[in-house]
Amino acid sequence: AQSVAQPEDQVNVAEGNPLTVKCTYSVSGNPYLFWYVQYPNRGLQFLLKYITGDNLVKGSYGFEAEFNKSQTSFHLKKPSALVSDSALYFCAVRVFTGGGNKLTFGTGTQLKVEL
Amino acid sequence: DAGVIQSPRHEVTEMGQEVTLRCKPISGHNSLFWYRQTMMRGLELLIYFNNNVPIDDSGMPEDRFSAKMPNASFSTLKIQPSEPRDSAVYFCASSFGQLLNYGYTFGSGTRLTVV
Questions:
Q1: Residues A6-18: pLDDT tens digits?
Q2: Nearest residue of A to residue B91 by CA position?
Q3: A57-86 burial string, b = 16+ CB within 10 Å, else e?
Q4: Is B98 an interface residue toward A (CB < 8 Å)?
Q5: d(CA B81, CA B58)
Q6: What is the pLDDT of residue A101?
Q7: Residue among B42, B48, B102 whose CB faces A102 most closely
Q8: CA nearest A4: which of A91, A101, A95?
Q9: Are B84 and B14 within 8 A, CB to CB?
Q10: Do B50 and A100 touch (CB under 8 A)?
Q11: Which residues have C-beta within 8 Å of that of residue A41, sequence separation ≥ 6?
Q12: B68-89, pLDDT tens digit by residue?
């Protein structure tokens, strides 16, 4: 089955430290990969995507993600975390089903950045 | 652009009542997706439309759920009769193009509570 996995329910980081939120994928063909962030009582917001090109993708709010084809991973990173980065992060992959494309989301990783 | 607009933001209803959730996608977007989010099940795709036509409704949990998209600027998700286990946050998302090169834009969601 085509899917993404986020192995960590929660990640805790001290402010100023680098952060990594993990994502692995399983798809047939070339993957379209996305990261979204959800703040409390809000909808999901687009952070960045990988479709083709450079394996290191830069996105909003200083986030970046590295596409690794051999490890089938697309980890989200930020060099220096902020308390305001605390939120729920979702990895997603495009899958083709039933005559159309849709995004399949991971289970989400709660990021907590502490002072 | 005002983004994807969902109404109401909050809905509290009694078991057995009919509930209608509304979504206005971004103008020019031709794909629309309805998701449900709960703590237990995460983000679940209920149904999606391309060019106002339902493509995949395999995620609709029961016959009590129905969705329509009468035109490019409006969609509804109806639950009749509602049950307490339908309590969740329901998100609508839209996208431009069926390849999903740009991912989705999500609305702010409707928090449904069935008592």
A1: 999 999 999 999 9
A2: A43
A3: bebeeebbbbbeeeeebbbbebeebeeebb
A4: yes
A5: 19
A6: 85
A7: B48
A8: A91
A9: no
A10: yes
A11: B111
A12: 999 999 999 999 999 999 999 9
